[in-house]
Specification:
Blueprint: E1 2-5, E2 19-22, H1 27-37, H2 41-45, E3 56-60, E4 63-64, E5 80-85
Parallel strand pairs: 1-5
Antiparallel strand pairs: 1-2, 3-4, 3-5
Length: 95
Amino acid sequence: MVKVRIPTPLRTLTGGKSEVEAPASDIQALIESLNGQFPGLKDRVCDDKGEIRRFVNIYLNEEDIRFLKGKHTPVKDGDEVSIVPAIAGGCEQGA
C-alpha cells in the first residue's frame, strides 16, 4: 500500500481524512485506485485527457514526479505520495 497525503481542498472527497492508503504500481494507477475509493478525486487532479493538472504537484517521497517519470513514475509498498495544489498569488509591494 502507498500512503497518500491529501491536501485540505480534496478532503471533502476523502471524508475529511488527511492521509489515505491505496495499492498501486505507478502514479497513474494510484490516481485510479484513489478515484475508486473516493469518486471525483481524479477529476480534481487530472484534466479531461487524463493528464495531471498544471496546478497540481505530486511528490513521491518528497521528490517532484515531474523530474521523475511523471504519471508513469513507479511506486511501491511503503512509499509516501503527497498531492499539493500549487498556490498562486502574492502581493505587490508599493512605494
